[in-house]
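Record format v2
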Amino acid sequence: MKEPLKTETLTLNIKDFAEAFGTSEDEVSLFCGNLIRTLDFKYTICPQETREKIFLDVITKCDHALFPVSGKHRKPDWRKGWGENLKDLFSSEDLGALIPKYWRGDRPLRYKGEYILASSDSFERDFGDVFKLWLYHKYFKDYDNIYDFGCGTGYDLANMAGKLPGKRFFGMDWAPESQGLLATIAEKYGWQMKGINFDLFRPDYKLEILPNSLVYTSSSLEQLGVDHNSFTNYLLAKQPSLCVNMECLSEYYDKNNLFDFLALKYHKARNYLDGFLTRLRGFEKEEKIKIIATKRTGFGSLYHEAYMYVIWKIL
Ligand SMILES: C[S@@+](CC[C@H](N)C(=O)[O-])C[C@H]1O[C@@H](n2cnc3c(N)ncnc32)[C@H](O)[C@@H]1O
């Protein structure tokens, strides 16, 4: 196949999404075709010069410890961030106020081993919306109760509530502002949705998981570093029917490839999720769980790739 010229304008199409998700074009077309057609997925591949500048930027910032490190001390930062979204929601009364401010449209993105420049500044969020729509159609339909752990502003829950009618939604987060956001949108839109204060580092076993439930996380386990055992033990005890994690899974990076190596360097500098997929694979060997699907989509933001997934169930 002909290599695309670096300056050529390309567009993500149904085939690209199918390859990224690990499914058929027919399925992507059926579940997400209408949404894809409304969005702008045009991009160009960054030239070598830009690529080298980004590599240097990562190395320098890691060497000078300029990236914020996640962990227990970050709670006030999340409270502050979601407090701003809550203020926006009160003044605008618009679901757009739920968009986290860290989705920036002004930087290159990662796609299949290249840095790319998107034509639309909502490219990353749009990719995420298509990816999540595919996940909802494929995996969420059969469950009555959806639990989003580390739900943040409720951006995903609001999306789900609009697309999966008749279900109950629970959004857990350690930031009380998240519960304020969920209470506001639940009342305004009449959704069966509840926010519950919950610390993933110290799971509250009093929180029951109802029968026929799906547990979802999106870039929240990311924040736990190596401290994910308490939460996975909680899940094993509570036995939800299905778990869907959209997280940065460090196991997928290839240490022998510079593009991946630097994403992993960034991942470690930020103390992001470490060893989660390995632990799940260990549980699978012990026949405690079954991993139904797991994949790296190949898409990400400037520094790393949060669009990887693992779907598993407890045996
Ligand atoms: C990157 S945001 C993702 C938010 C949301 N899932 C999304 O995709 O928009 C990480 C979220 O995890 C939450 N979080 C981080 N550590 C947590 C902990 N120990 N317990 C509960 N929530 C936590 C933060 O408050 C924040 O809402």
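Residues 10-68+103-150+198-314 form one domain.
The longest helix spans residues 75-92.
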